[in-house]
Amino acid sequence: MVRPPDFKWPTRVCVGCGEEFQPTGSVQKHCGPSCRPTRKTCYQCTREKDRDDFYKYPDGRLMVPCKDCRREYAKASWHARDTERVAREADARWERKLRRQFNIDPDDYWRMYDEQQGRCRICSRSLQEMAEGERRGSKFVFMHFAVDHDRRCCSGPTSCGKCVRGLLCTKCNGSLGWYEQFSDEIAAYLAATKR
C-alpha cells in the first residue's frame, strides 16, 4: 500500500518526557534521541548495555538480543549446520573419487580395510598412528587410507579396478609411487655408488 505524500501519523505522547509529538513511523515511542533511555537490558544475557551494543532497525528501534548474543547464536548455529554439511559432502566426494579414479565401490574399500585389519599394507600403521606421526600435537585425523594401484597396468590417473593392490598410508603410497616412477634411475645410481 502506497501512502499519499501528505500522509502524517497521528500524534502521540512521548514515553520519555510526556510531551505530545508527531511520529515519523508507526512504532516511534519517543520524541527524539534525548528522551530515549541510554541503556537497555538484553533479554538473553540479562545484562544492561549501551544502546550502541544493539543493532538497529531502519526506523531507529533497537533489535534484541544484543550484538554479542546475536553473534554467538549465529556462530553456533552456522557451525553446527556447516559441520554436518561438510562431513556429508566429504563422504560423497570420497565415494565419487573411489568410483571415478579407482573404479571400486566403498564396499570394496572397506573389504580391503578389514582384510588388512585397518593397517597400511607396507608399514602396518593404523589411521590413528598415521595422524600422530604426520601432525604431532594437532587434531588432524586421517579418515581414509590411500588406494594403491599398479601403474604398469594403468599408467594414467585412473585405474581399471583390477590393478588395485591394497590400502597404504600416505607416506608409503607416495614413496612407492616415486620409487616406481624412478626405479631405473635409482638402480643406476645404486650400481654406480657400489664401485
Written description of the protein model:
- This protein is mainly alpha-helical and 195 residues long.
- The protein has a domain at 104-193: His-Me finger endonuclease fold (3-Layer(aba) Sandwich), CATH 3.40.1800.10.
- The protein has five helices and six strands; from the N terminus they run E-E-E-E-H-H-H-E-E-H-H.
- The chain has helices at residues 67-102, 106-115, 127-134, 170-181, 183-193, and strands spanning 12-13, 20-21, 39-41, 48-50, 146-149, 164-168.
- The longest helix has 36 residues, at 67-102.
Outline the fold blueprint.
Layout: E1 12-13, E2 20-21, E3 39-41, E4 48-50, H1 67-102, H2 106-115, H3 127-134, E5 146-149, E6 164-168, H4 170-181, H5 183-193
Antiparallel strand pairs: 1-2, 3-4, 5-6
In short:
With 195 residues, the protein is mainly α. It has helices at residues 67-102, 106-115, 127-134, 170-181, 183-193; strands at 12-13, 20-21, 39-41, 48-50, 146-149, 164-168. The chain is rod-shaped, with a radius of gyration of 33 Å.
Level of helix content? 25-40%
Rg, alpha carbons: 33 Å
CATH fold naming of the domain at 104-193: His-Me finger endonuclease fold
Content-based structural category = mainly alpha
Span of the ends, CA to CA: 96 Å
Return the CATH class of the domain at 104-193: Alpha Beta
Strand content: 5-15%
Q: Largest beta sheet, briefly? A: 2 strands, antiparallel
The parts where pLDDT drops under 50 for at least 5 residues are 136-140
User: CATH-wise, what's the superfamily of the domain at 104-193?
Assistant: His-Me finger endonucleases
Total beta strand runs: 6
Order of helices and strands: EEEEHHHEEHH
**Order of strands side by side in the largest beta sheet?**
1-2
Task: Estimate the global geometry from the Cα principal axes.
Answer: rod-shaped
Known CATH architecture of the domain at 104-193: 3-Layer(aba) Sandwich
Q: Averaging pLDDT over every residue, what do you get?
A: 83
Specify the number of helices: 5
